[in-house]
Amino acid sequence: MLGRRSALPSETEIQAARAEVVNLARRVLSGDLSILLAARELSRLRFSVGGDEWDPDFIQFVAIDSETDHLPVGQARQHWASEALVEKDEEIARAEAWARDGGLTACQRLLDRFG
Questions:
Q1: What does the alpha-carbon distance between residue 8 and residue 29 come to, in Å, rounded to a whole number?
Q2: Mean pLDDT across the chain, nearest whole number?
Q3: What is the pLDDT of residue 53?
Q4: What angle do CA 22, 46, 104 make, to 5 degrees?
Q5: pTM of the full predicted structure?
Q6: The CA-based dihedral angle spanning residues 39, 44, 49, 55, taken in that order and rounded to the nearest 10 degrees
Q7: HEC letters along the chain
């Protein structure tokens, strides 16, 4: 099937993915990590935690990632001109505020569940 993993993750892979989810959620909640960057990883990790890939907490991050994947955050910024970044920074700030609205609650639920 298109877009699906060919094999189910092992128990070791599941535990590692859950640990990464906890790490990302903690960093977002503490303010150490952009929720936009975390969303990119959390949306990918939903396939590896051994649960429903349509879990509402993970789908929150799929939506955030989908709506903000055009924005230069994290390492992608190094490939952008400084003038363009100035223009995008306002859009990034608005997107961060929008994403925190439901994303912080989803982070806390993931932390409660897997932490």
A1: 30
A2: 92
A3: 85
A4: 50
A5: 0.87
A6: 60
A7: CCCCCCCCCCHHHHHHHHHHHHHHHHHHHHCCCCHHHHHHHHHHHCCCCCCCCCCHHHHHHHHHHHHHCCCCCHHHHHHCCHHHHHHHHHHHHHHHHHHHHHHHHHHHHHHHHHC
60 vs 106: CA distance, rounded Å: 7
pLDDT 10s digits, 53-105: 899 999 999 999 999 999 999 998 999 999 999 989 999 999 999 999 999 99
| Nearest of 64, 66, 63 to residue 33 by alpha carbon | 64
Neighbours of 9 (CB within 10 A): 15
Q: Are 95 and 71 in contact (CB under 8 A)?
A: yes
pLDDT classification of 1: cutoffs 50, 70, 90: very low
Retrieve residue 69's tokens.
């994947």
Cα–Cα distance, 49 to 20 (Å, whole number): 10
